Amino acid sequence: MLYNVLIDPFVMMGSAPDLLIQTLWEGLVAGVLYALIALGFVLIFKASGVFNFAQGIMVVFAALTLVGLHEMGVPALLALILTIGVMFILAVTVERVVLRPLVNQPDIILFMATFGLTYFLIGFGELIFGGNPKQMIAQELYLPQGSTDLDLFGGLVRFQHIDIAAAVIASLIIAVLAVFFSKTRIGRALRAVADSHKAALSVGISLGQIWVIVWFAAGIVALVAGIMWGARSDVSFALQIVALKALPVLILGGFTSIPGAIVGGLIIGVSEKLGEFYWGGLVGGGIETWLAYIIALLFLLYRPQGLFGERIIERI
Prior knowledge:
ABC_transp_permease, transmembrane, membrane, ABC transporter involved in vitamin B12 uptake, BtuC, cell membrane, mainly alpha
């Protein structure tokens, strides 16, 4: 038994390096998309100090809006622009209806408010677009189709073009947002709001404006993640389960760290694929559904602040 767990998987990796590369590639693509979703959580957490439970359903809602508008006869690129507008309206609505009345309330109140927002978006999405899975309009959005096979280490490694596009686009968005929120005036204001709402208000920073910008940015991230995940499978409310994989990513990387979201996403994505392919047969498969949470639990036990989070010491 110990041989099967500790030695045989590594023997398989060495004997079939092409399969190892294929597994690593698929893990890296999934990891980048996890990191993209986690970035939406990080942005909102940095601005309000609250974990936005609704980020997962925002991924689904954005993708459903895009596909639903196209099904109504709207051209794909126009539907994309209109969906961006819908996410901006959602950001303004959340700031006016949810955040502004609850400013300076305990964090648990805002956290529970995001639960309410989650179930509102589920009900509203089902009312407008129905509950049946839909096919992402990847071809209409000019996303690449097909695949390329490369002969590596004596075997064929297949690279799906949509996976390559997903990795490139997600990486670009992460890089742009990282620079925007670290080097610009808005980014400095965001850090001030994250440190103290009252102090930010005292120096003339508008909480409402910052919250709208951050929630809109999180909405754009959700839209891109929804397009990419939808193109790899389909668009349905089951996507919010995939989106919640961002929670262990955040635990690994730290709730306030953009680099942490990237590293955590890659660790989770690669670990899931390696675990499922090389160790899945020992437990009957399904490792991808729970391995991320086991890794997160270990981090909570031994390094609760994550890889890039700050250790908070409270003195009494």
